[in-house]
Amino acid sequence: MLKSIRRHDIDWLRVITIGLLLIYHVTIVFQPWGVFIGFIQSDTSLENLWIPMSMINIWRIPLLFFVSGMGVCFAIKKRNWIQLILERSKRILLPFIFGVVCIVPIHVFIWQQYYKQDFVYNLQEGHLWFLKNIFIYVILLSPLFFYLRKNENGTIYRWLKKLFKNPFGLLLIILSFVLEATLVNPESYEMYALTLHGFILGMLAFLFGFIFIYSGETFWPMILKWRWLFIVLALILFLVRYFIFELKAPNYYLAVESCFWIFSMFGFAYRYLNHSSYILSYLSQGAYPIYIIHMIFIYVGSILILPLHIQVILKFILLVVFTFAGSFLLYDLVLRRISFLRPLFGLKGRIK
Q: For every one of its 352 residues, what pLDDT tens digit does the chain have, with 9 covering 90 and above?
C-alpha cells in the first residue's frame, strides 16, 4: 500500500499550482473589484486576463488540498499519530501562527498606507487560511488515516482497489463534490478562503488525495490510461461554461469540471513529471515559504509599478516578474540560510 518511492510528479504539481497562485493574485490587481477583497487595484483593468484565470480558478486550490492529503499518506508510513501531529505542527501550524502575527499585517499595512487609511493592527489569516485548514484536516482525519494504515490489506483497501480499476470509480469522487456544491450552495464556487464551502471542499479533496495514494496500485495506472479523455472533457466543459454560461455556470457544473481538470492533471503529471531534478528539489523546498511571503511583494510591487506611465499589460508583466523575483530572492538569500527563520516558514533542518 504505502511504498517509500518518492513521487516527483506530486512535488511538481505542488510547485506548479503555487506558481499559478502567484500569477492569479497578481491578476486580481488588474480587476475592477480587486480593492474590495483587499488588493491594491490598478486604475486600468485587464478584464480579459480573467478568462484564463476562470479556467484554473475552479481547480487550483482543490488540487493543492488533494496534494496535501497525498503528502500525509506518505508521511504516516514512518510516523505514529503523535509524531505526525508534532511534525505537522512544526511545518504548518507554526508558520501559520507566525504568518498571521508578522507577515499578513505587513501587506495589510501597505494597503492601508496606499489608500491613506489609519493603520490598524489586527490578526488576520489572509491568504494563510490554507495552512490552517490543512492542520485541522490532519487532526480530524488522522484517526481514519491510521485505521486504514493499520488495516492496509482489509476490506476497505480491497474495495478501493476494485473501485479505481476503471474510471467509473471516479463518479463517487465527482458525486461527493457535486453534493457539497449543491448542499452548501456557495454564492461563488471559487470563493474558498474562510468559507464553509472552502472548508468542506478542501476536506473532501484532502481525504481523496490520501485515498488516491492509499489505493495507488490500481488508481495511477487507470488515471494514466484515461488522462486524454479527462482533459478533453474538462476543455469541453470550460468552453460550454465560457460560451453558454458566460463563465457563470451553476455550482454543480463547476464541481464536475473541476474534477475532470484535476484528474487530467494527475494523469499527465504521472506520465511526464515523475522524475527528479535539482530544480525540483529547490522549488519543492521553497514552495511554501514563497507562498507565505509572496503577497508582500505583490503589494510593494503594486506601489512601485502601478503609477508608471506605461501600458497596463507591461505593468502586469512587471508585477509578475517583481513578485516572483522578490519572493525567490528573499527565500534564497535570507529565509533558507538563517537557521532560526527556517521553521517559521515551514522549512526543516539546516541548509545543505
A: 445 577 999 999 999 999 999 999 999 999 999 999 999 999 999 999 999 999 999 999 999 999 999 999 999 988 999 999 999 999 999 999 999 999 999 999 999 999 999 888 989 999 999 999 999 999 999 999 999 998 888 899 999 999 999 999 999 999 999 999 999 999 999 999 999 999 999 999 999 999 999 987 789 999 999 999 999 999 999 999 999 999 999 999 999 999 999 999 999 999 999 998 999 999 999 999 999 999 999 999 999 999 999 999 999 999 999 999 999 999 999 999 999 999 999 998 666 5
Whether residue 2 lies inside any domain: the answer is no
Is the residue at 3 inside a domain?
A: no
Q: Is position 147 within any domain?
A: yes
Whole-prediction pTM: 0.95
CA angle 51, 54, 57 (to 5 degrees): 150
In the chain, the number of structural domains is 1
Instruction: Give first-to-last CA distance, the chain, whole Å.
Output: 32
Q: Which domain holds residue 210?
A: 8-345
